Amino acid sequence: MTLKDKILVTGGTGFIGSHTVVELQNAGYEVVIVDNLSNSREEVVDSIEQITGERPSFEKVDCLDKESLKKVFEEYAGIRAIIHFAASKAVGESVQKPLMYYRNNLGSLLNLLDLMPQYGVEGIVFSSSCTVYGQPDVLPVTERAPIKKAESPYGNTKQICEAIIQDDVKSGAPISAILLRYFNPIGAHPSGLIGELPNGVPQNLVPFITQTAMGIREQLSVFGDDYDTPDGSCIRDYINVVDLAKAHVHAISRILQKKQEEPVEVFNVGTGRGLSVLELVHAFEASTGVKLNYKIAGRRAGDIVKVWADPKKANEVLGWHAEETIEDTLRSAWKWQVHLRETGIQ
Ligand code: UD1
Fold first, then answer.
1. What's the whole-model pTM score?
2. Is the distance from the beta carbon of residue 236 to the nearest atom of ligand 1 less than 6 Å?
3. Is the distance from the beta carbon of residue 159 to the nearest atom of ligand 1 less than 6 Å?
4. Can you tell me whether residue 113 is helix, strand or coil?
5. At 171, is the secondary structure helix, strand, or coil?
6. What is the DSSP letter of 299?
7. Of 2, 90, 95, 192, which shows the fewest CB atoms inside 10 Å?
8. Total domain count for the chain?
9. Ligand 1 centroid to 315 CA: how many Å?
């Protein structure tokens, strides 16, 4: 029996984290999850076990707590790489509590980067966002597009974290990194056992749609139909969360097999296809057969008009492609919402 490569996943009980743990285990990796459960539930570990037949290790640790992180590296000796999801991610909240966002998102990364060389960890995959591009001048947006001034402290933490990793590696730190710039992750695992569990009223579109369809919210507001787009609503690149999770497995394998052309590589993770808010609403109705109560409302402050990825680099260099259809993706989001109702969670 060959020994499995051990991967530390911070934020591994969260939305994208939990799906990534599943795909890592499916691909034969051993996973150690670290999560402070600030925005997720420990029961997610049971669900991961139910899906994969294998229970990942779990430590309730805050990445700001360096001493506890050290203990994790000691207890699970031989961790080869990290996928770092653990972060605060609500745009609006970050405007209200900027210091909390800077402390949490930057501090966690700094602790990990400090500890990686001490424990021989070879590489890190960092959760970044297409938010770093702001409103791109050219679409689809490639990784070479300029970084625009962030609209929120949250967006700024993503930019600063990217820069911290670049500077650390440039200074000679014996690690490599892959920065994944996600477009809009949606959907859930096809089993319906894991998915996105927003805290309070959802700010993101798809959780708001599924909660409205379930009757938890009365009506969806479509924020603006007078933008410069074909139907007037904003356009995004919605990426299935399982597809996104698989991009992390490709990134980890690239790091461990020392295939990187540069010590820090950046990839867009999107489908390459833009969908408007109204198109998405209609796709939800068509693929689930559930009618949605919605109205056109005013624009939301700070919204980007249109953005979608050029995923060519990820396709060609990482060997990863988005595979799921938007219909299957929206059906999976609905299945998850139904699961939440059936289990009494929501
Ligand atoms: C938002 C963040 C982005 C972050 C991402 C994480 C902003 C400005 N951007 O992206 O930085 O990385 O979440 O997931 O907040 N919409 C409605 N009605 C709703 C909710 C959303 O019409 O009730 C529309 C929005 O106006 C937007 C689209 O749906 O056009 C997608 O919105 P959302 O899911 O919040 O994602 P982003 O704004 O793209």
1. 0.97
2. yes
3. no
4. helix
5. coil
6. P
7. 2
8. 1
9. 25
Which residue bears the tokens 């489908």? Answer: 271
Please give the residue that has the higher pLDDT: either 265 or 302: 265
Ligand 1 touching residue 91 (CB < 6 A): yes
Pairing of strands 176-182, 294-297: unpaired
344 occurs within a structural domain? no
The amino acid at 174? P
Distance from the alpha carbon of residue 91 to the mean position of ligand 1, in angstroms: 9
Query: Sorting pLDDT into bands at 50, 70 and 90, what band is 103?
Result: very high
Q: Which domain holds residue 252?
A: 6-187+238-271+310-318
Residue 212 CA to ligand 1 center (angstroms) comes to 16
Residue 105 belongs to a domain: yes
Q: Is residue 23 part of a domain?
A: yes
Catalytic residue among 101, 154, 227, 294: 154
pLDDT band at 339 (very low <50, low <70, confident <90, very high): very high
d(C-alpha 65, C-alpha 222), whole Å: 40
**Domain presence at residue 345:** no
Q: Is 223 in the pocket of ligand 1 (CB under 6 A)?
A: yes
Has 227 been annotated as catalytic?
no
